[in-house]
Amino acid sequence: QVQLEESGGGLVQPGGSLRLSCEASGRSFSSYPMVWWRQGPGKGREFVAAVNWDGSNSDYVDSVKGRFTISRDNAKNTASLQMNNLKSEDTAAYYCAAALGWYESDWYEGGMVFWGKGTLVTVSS
Question: What is the pLDDT of residues 6-15, one digit of tens each?
Answer without folding.
Answer: 999 999 999 9
